[in-house]
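Friendly challenge for the regulars: who can give me the structure tokens for this chain first? No prize, just bragging rights.
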Amino acid sequence: MLFDKEKFCEFISNVKNPKSGSYSIISYTQTINYQDFLRAQEILNSKQKFFYWSFPKEKYSFIACGQVFRNSYGDSQKFNLVDQDFMKISTSVLTNRNANIDSKHPLFVAGIKFPSNKKESIWNDFETSNWFIPKILLLKSGDEHYLSVNLKLPCENERKYSEEIEQFLSPHYPVSGINSDYTGNNIKRHDIIPPGKIEEWNSQINAALKIISDGKVKKIVLARTIEIDFRDQPDIVPILKQLESNYNNCYTFAFKEEKSVFFGASPERLFKIQNGFVEIDALAGSINRGHGEDDDKSLENTLLNDMKNLEEHKNVLDFVINRLLPLSEKILFDSKPLIKKFSNIQHLHSRIRAKLRKGVTVFSLFENIYPTPAVCGYPQNIALEAINNLEKFERGLYGGAIGWLNKTNCEFAVGIRSAILSMNKLRCYAGCGIVNGSDPASEFNETALKLKPILSLFENETFSKS
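First reply, four minutes later:
Bragging rights claimed.
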């Protein structure tokens, strides 16, 4: 049995007892077996909104569906308002979970757009800053699997609600009818390098280099896009499974709102809070992988000694450490950058770990370090102004933040190596850090490497032009 209606109804009935106190959200959790967990993933094919998160290397994943509480904000930077609402709600949740399970169990999931002044219809289904408590959450943590059902009080008929949940989880729940064929014959148009794009890119890079040479800013992160048109909207499930297989040490995610899905496989942790400590990745500076072990090692050494990439990485590291100083009691970090390897690219990588001061919240971190120089530039405000002037498109959730949080812990990834699928159109994004000495052609090639996690899903196919 996937969902135990009787235990759920019993739990809700006990909560209604005045002795239980005053609560606004009830969260019921039960264990399920692996097969039930797999079958329930069919929800991803339904018409429902969902939020999918997976870190295969750590055997942690969840699917969040439906919404019992939601707050959306028109400004991605107003984290003080989110903090007030979160504290009010999170302190009024009653659950049957023990402390160990509760600490790794998402309460809210969130998607926050990059602070852009552009607006495009392709992003209309997503709010600027969206935080919600799901109705249903399916969680895999290690070898354990859980089903959680959230309920907003008051609830007049918990048995009727439980029947709705059971129907929702049924494998016969009506699916959207979208096409599981996302390769080959389903592709209508695929322009790897649309006409004029290289000239436009060169012009943007040179404009950024002019701003940098004037001494106004040290780094500006610029991005470009590639679009694919499909005859029929593809099924997101095989895409996510392929990304997990190809990039098992990345965060695979998908956030569906209405008829659009933002998805990707991000290598970069924005921050993770656990037991009062915050962990942050400084990930900047990159080079391709080699053909064979010796070639790969040679490229690694090149990256470790390349002044342009080292300077770009130092900007990110210094920014994060300086912003953490007033929030932390102690900060530990790698004195020299390490190398983090992925199947198609390798990066300079520094690990940062800090003991947070009492009272510092996830929203304090957002206010101080988001967006980081890895996706924006440095100094932040001038780099952001340059991005908004030079880029011709809305980044949306690309370069933004995506993740989850509960009363004590959280984990957020940077929304890179990503794309939005809106109806029959797929738009992929990739960016690179422009610093003094950057070369437009080299930066274009770097973005090509970063586009590969998405575009590789469709390579070796024959594309028909419209």
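The two ends are 49 Å apart (CA to CA). The first strand starts at residue 25 and ends at 31. Your move, everyone else.
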